[in-house]
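I'd like us to work through together how a protein chain folds, taking it slowly. To get us started, please write out a protein record for me. Label the sequence line and the structure token line clearly, so we can match residues to local backbone shapes. Once you have written the record down, we can walk along the chain together.
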Amino acid sequence: MSITIKTPEEIEKMRIAGRLTAEVLDYIKPFVKPGVTTEELDKLCHDLMVNVQNSIPAPLNYAPPGHKPYPKSICTSINHQVCHGVPSKDKKLKNGDVVNLDITVIKDGWHGDSSRMFHVGEPGILARRLTEITYECMWKGIAAVRPGVHLGVVGAAIQKHAESNGYSVVREFCGHGIGRGFHEEPQVLHYGKADEGPTLEPGMTFTIEPMINAGRRDIRVLGDGWTVVTKDHSLSTQWEHTILVTEIGYEVLTLSAECPPPPAFITG
């Protein structure tokens, strides 16, 4: 499958999908608190998408080859869960947890995809630091995007920042092209060499979504067939944005006023 270059009209549709994705993450923030179940968070997000935005939650019933359909509308990954955590009525958030909420909406046939980390009450120093470094990793990858360079610059920047801070990069999952399809080409690795991968061109759209572990990078999948956890039970955090390659650099399609501000190395 080749990489699709989006037209100006298609890019505008992706901006709308990205804005709606960010809107869901903005909306759910005050509900992320001790005592709430992840299923309650899922229902709140689902109702906003379906009943208010008139959008479609892309994860619901999504079934790639070899997987049973995903049963919920969002992913909720807590503490040592790396990604694809399935919301449950039995899983209550507790003080000190860190949770990633991963949202993908479909609006008029186009996808927007983003995830954020949320602190539940007062997390510990390690959780705060890992969350911060992972956020910086994502932005290191984003900042490397510009036309004419190899896609490998993204993964190289992320890996360097993570490992220089003593953390490891999950390699079994990666970012991806996005548009009419939930998962398109190219695969966006969060590790590797800067001179590898396809050359970036204006009109490409893809996600950057590093999963960074406090311990070893090894993972395993739980019995539900979806939830991915660290093998050593160490904390794992993730951030994600949908990115457009422009004529001069990049545009983040899933930003909102409620997003955490970019790191100083971006704004400065």
